[in-house]
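S2.1 Query sequence (Myb/SANT-like domain-containing protein)
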Amino acid sequence: MAQFSRANWSDALPRKHFIDLCLHEANSGFRSGATLKPSAWTRIAEGLKKMIEKCLNQKQLKNGWDYMKSQYQTWTKLTNTTGHGYNSVTRTINWPDERWEKYLKANIL
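Output structure tokens follow.
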């Protein structure tokens, strides 16, 4: 039985490799609804093992997919807001505190 590594999606290089592998699989027709087909997850796991020398299972990969998808949806919603205040240099949304409070009450809390 393989010993799986701990997944860490905040590291930039593994995250980039993961996204690139997911895009390749999706663009190759291995998408199933809002996720990828099981065979795609197997190829992604093999690719990551070669690239970053970590052994991840399908559940870890799917959790990474869901986590990054949620982050992307939040980022898209923020940057599409009129007068969003996105700073491309710092890559942050620089709203005043009052605007953040209003957004958080309406969307998070």
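Strands lie at 31-32, 35-36, 86-87, 92-93. The longest strand covers residues 31-32.
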